[in-house]
Write a structure and sequence with these properties.
Bound molecules: adenosine-5-diphosphoribose, P-hydroxybenzoic acid
Number of helices: 11
Low-confidence stretches: none
Structural class: alpha+beta
Strand order of the largest sheet: 6-5-15-16-17-14-18
Helix content: 25-40%
Shape: globular
Length: 392
Amino acid sequence: MRTQVAIIGAGPAGLLLSHLLGLQGIGSVLVERQSADHVRSRIRAGMLESGTVDVLTRAGVGERLAAEADHHRGVYLQWPGERHHVDFVDLVGRSVSVYGQTEMTKDLMAAREEAGRPAFYQASEVTPHGVDTDRPHVTFTDSDGASQRVDADVVVGCDGFHGPSRRAVPGQHQRVWERTYPFAWLGVLADVAPSTDELIYAWHPDGFAMHSMRSATVSRLYLQVRPDEDVADWSDDRIWAALTTRLGAGREGWELGTGPITDKSVLPMRSFVTTPMRHGRLFLAGDAAHIVPPTGAKGLNLAVADVSLLADALTAWLRDGREELADAYSDTALRRVWRCTHFSWWMTNTFHRHGDDFDAQLQLSQLRRVVDSEAAATEFADNYAGLPIRFG
Ligand code: APR
Ligand code: PHB
């Protein structure tokens, strides 16, 4: 089989890239390890920057998002005895939207089914070849057990942190930067109306807690736990007690509504960047190239920014024969990646309990600065609400 762009991985990055290329008349084939149902039902992030919403809207997949997403002017930052609203709209003129990655994935999958674009789900042994040459290709075994080969002009690795694409770059051409954190998140999904209109990020002596949401009837909540924490040790009662203590500490009289917990999992926290994001005819995008800890909700937004740049670059190259944007892709994407890597590292370090009491006082001083100083609040809002996505 021959196509212009072979895309490995059909998470948000792969699905959106294929859609954006399709709109420009560039053909692509998606090769995904999991089943379509598995991809559709994964619980992941839920906060979209305004730039992400713009990309999805311009791509014609923003209709349900416009009708169903919840627009938030900002977020609450709190610590014992204080809860403050940071208003992004007032500070930088941009808002954010709560819309589950699961919903965005469904919209993109529906669009690709409608357009009849080819995808192989449940593919195994997916391997990129010849990325140093002018004839790259991808081999895999399809869901019927047949060997397949897709020849392409370029291969794009959108296969997440554990996928094979990053490993196709020879070691001497690749550099990795990494930071692991001495804590993790216990994330729960609960059938209960959110007890807040906008997200709450809470510093607490027992550890960080966060209140997010998926809809008017579903809450998403997180607790700082140890990296080796066993979910089995966290009964529903223990989870609600910890959330009530940590989230309730910011404002007297405020109450956390509780309800049936439908999902619990422990999420590791890591920062990871690999460079460059292009090697020959192989391009990396999204989690295949970088991971951020979830504090600050940058992972999904970074993936969207990468593929938005990459779609423009590949269109210019494969349709108009101009390679400059493809040459600029890695450096351009990485400038944003490092900004978001810094911001999510800063949020993670500032909100989680680690170190000693001296560290705790420095954290609280940082948080007070964000709410006391308009300059500091503006810097926070500008990073959280998202930077522009563009070349140059
Ligand atoms: N072959 C084919 N596909 C693979 C392989 C493989 N060997 N390994 C992984 N994949 C697929 C995964 O099954 C997944 O569907 O690649 C896809 C990668 O998707 P994500 O991990 O969601 O990464 P990405 O699309 O870059 O999205 C990044 O979404 O999931 C969040 O935390 C993530 O917010 C971040 C954003
Ligand atoms: C979420 O809703 O899952 C979420 C929101 C904001 C974050 C992290 C996760 O910083």
